[in-house]
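INFO worker-7 received task bundle
INFO bundle size: 2
INFO processing item 0
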Amino acid sequence: MFCIDKKNIGAVIRNARKKAKLKQYQVAEMAGFSEKHLSRIENGKYLPKLEHFLILTSILNLSLKDFGFIEPDNTNEEKTKLINKIMSLDSMTLNIYKTSLESAEKIVKIIKSKQET
């Protein structure tokens, strides 16, 4: 079972913000939400919504590897590039990608079923 650790996510975001020499209010302003909300995320009290997570990872130049979601030995370079690309998308473009992937999955399923017969 996959467990998301709010405290780890918050710590990674806080450390990346500090490494970038940015204040909470600066990142919150760039992200479009309150400093209080960012503080709660960084302190592990809130799990950011996907949209906020994607915005923060884009602002702070973070990848899933930084959060420990992807082990470097378990993924190839192409998957990593694709995941990092998805992580940097705005919400409108992310929805387009999602729709495209759903369509591609349907096509692959049809092709596989035809190959099996």
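INFO item 0 finished
INFO processing item 1
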Amino acid sequence: MRGLFVTGTGTAVGKSVVAAAICAALAARGERVAAFKPAVTGLDEPAGEWPPDHELLAHVASAGQAPAGVAPYRFRPPVSPHFASELRGETIEPMRLVATARAAGAGADVLVCEGVGGLLVPLTAGYLVRDLAVDLGLPLVVAAHTGLGTINHTLLTVEAARAAGLRVAGVVMTPWPKRPAPIEASNRATVERLAAVPVSGLPQTDPRSLAAAGEALPLDRWLSPQKALGQRARGAH
């Protein structure tokens, strides 16, 4: 499959916005984009500016998916997927996740998969978000916040990804301000240097300007394995 797997350094770091911006920008180019998220939780939370993740991804993707087709498992409590499924007496089946994602990708030019929380969040007993990323074999994009603490969180995520053999195509700090503070600029440069991975900034966006924000990201570079690997090798030296 041609596509990307978007993960985050934790919860509420802009992962869904990054994934939606990628979908919207590729769709605006004329690509047939499918979206996938293994599970959505927190549907009990009050609605805000942003719709639930599976609804947002279905809206910006261009493969004609219904929200239920984007996320095969949907839960109301704002907890980890493995616990949400336990509360409902349901088991998340890894084989179903992989099959659903591959079926979506087979009918599209690009598959954009968004994880749940961070890379080591359990989807079910013995199966992490990282395991799903490995099974799908897509390049990884890491969403991270811009401020204090992001260096440690981002480097840990990149290290955990590479330990499992995943290729980290890039890191996205979000929302990236027009005039970054000194700590934000330093964080971006430090992560890029220590992780040996390109770090981009996603501009402040809303549900109506996702495509424009996504065009600020190096989508072609991320989707080109040879280029990304070459850059990583040069950075490592």
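INFO item 1 finished
INFO post-check item 1: The radius of gyration is 17 Å.
INFO post-check item 1: The mean pLDDT is 93.
INFO worker-7 idle
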